[in-house]
Amino acid sequence: MIDTAFNWACDMPSEVASLVALLMSGLAQLTILPDDRVLRLAVYSALALALLTLVVMSQVVVLSELASRREARRRGFIAAWRPHLAAWSLEAEDKALPAPPRSRQERIWFLLLWSRVQRQLRGTAQQRLNVLLERLGMIAPVLGLLESRAVHRRLVALACLRHLADVAHWSAVSPLLDSRNVTISLAAAQTLVAMDPERAMQRIMSKLEERRDWAMPRLEALCQQAGRQAVTAPLLDRLSAPRGGTTRAVALLWWAEPGQAAPWARRLLADQSASHEVQELHDESRCAALRSLGELRDPRDRDLLVAHLDDEAPAVRLAALAALRRQASVADQALIASLLADPNWWVRQAAADALVALPDMDDAALTTLLASLTDRYGQDALRRAMAEGRR
Fold first, then answer.
1. Which residue range(s) make up the domain with 233?
2. Backbone angles phi, psi at 63, to 5 degrees
3. How far apart are CA 176 and CA 127, in angstroms?
4. Domain count for the chain
């Protein structure tokens, strides 16, 4: 056994040498290109593919490393600046300010952090951060971002200017309201509203039909941000203009002051001249006018509301009933009960809910009314409203 192990140990160098010789001969064969052109092309293609794979892999590794280092720098930058912003939001510091961000990327990081902190603050704390932004000399870089081709940089600048709400920057933001990018144009609209609500709503209402890409929920959010006082005058001017009472303008009537919108609503409801082509728009306008008068709750409008309970359009009857319900009394019981026989399901349900909500309308009176009904669908509607009213 010892002799066998000794012989194997002695033969080991020769076997290693044979393996090395075999490997070298294989490499030598690889360096010799075949004579066949097709095989030679295949070898070249394989080498090119291998080289391309190595390049792509190297690029992925390099980009990953760069992204990792940039993320580490960003976290360190935010960790260094967050305490300063927190301290300034509590009380403006008299000590020397830290050096402002120098590189373009650091300025973007700072502005994003500043905007994020601003969204969490209210009142004087926001004003302190505005002062900090000015003392750091960041206003000029923010305005410079408005000229950038990158959409995200423009949005960062608009967000910062919205928090500043300084009308001095109106001329820099106003042209972006005409941007073909709907996101930028709406962000510019928000910023203008923050600067000067009444002036901004004048511009927004003038572009109401031109910018069909502005979604109604975003327009309603702008009206809510501006407030009813700022919305009312430009909206009523738009509605009173020739062909101004479009669907988009009428839908925003809810955000106007009811007292100021009442004259327009009364004129519209009193005008019965509507061509067949614009009847649908006319019905939507009347519904909006009825909702506005209902919110006002003026007893002088009662006859006008009652007159529209017999309108041909179910939506108009429903809007008139909802407006009348806000000022109805027990004396209107018979009038509302007659709507339980309305052919429209929604009108019947609304009439039943209005009856149950009438003051001094107890269960005994409702039961008596239910027994007097002859319309089966009206009975079902009233039963449903009575059952829900007892919950």
1. 196-208+218-255
2. -65, -40
3. 25
4. 2
From CA 114, how far away is CA 250, in angstroms rounded?
Answer: 38
**Assigned token pair, 139:** 């206003």
pLDDT string in tens for the chain (391-residue length): 445 544 544 454 566 577 667 656 655 655 666 667 777 787 778 878 888 888 888 888 888 888 888 888 888 888 888 888 887 778 766 556 777 788 888 889 889 988 998 888 888 888 888 888 888 888 999 999 999 889 999 999 999 999 999 899 999 999 999 999 999 999 999 999 999 999 999 999 989 888 888 998 999 999 999 999 999 999 998 888 776 557 788 888 888 999 899 898 888 888 765 544 445 667 888 898 899 998 889 889 899 999 999 999 999 999 999 999 998 888 889 999 999 999 999 999 999 999 999 988 888 888 998 999 999 999 999 999 999 876 6
Q: Are residues 86 and 167 in the same domain?
A: yes
**Together in a domain, 77 and 154:** yes
Q: Are 110 and 99 in contact (CB under 8 A)?
A: no
Whether residues 73 and 182 share a domain: the answer is yes
Task: Read off the tokens for 240.
Answer: 């009173």
Q: Mind spelling out the 3-state secondary structure of 340-354?
A: HHCCCHHHHHHHHHH
Is the residue at 75 inside a domain?
yes
Do 180 and 84 sit in the same domain of this protein? yes
Residues 110 and 173 in one domain: yes
The owner of tokens 């003038």 is: 206
Counting DSSP H helices and E strands in the chain, the numbers are 20, 0
Collapsing DSSP to helix, strand or coil, 34 comes out as coil
Distance CA 338, CA 334 (A): 6
Is 185 in the same domain as 121?
Answer: yes
Residue 325 is encoded by which pair of tokens?
């319900």
Residue 269 in domain: no
Instruction: Identify whether residues 181 and 202 lie together within a single domain.
Output: no
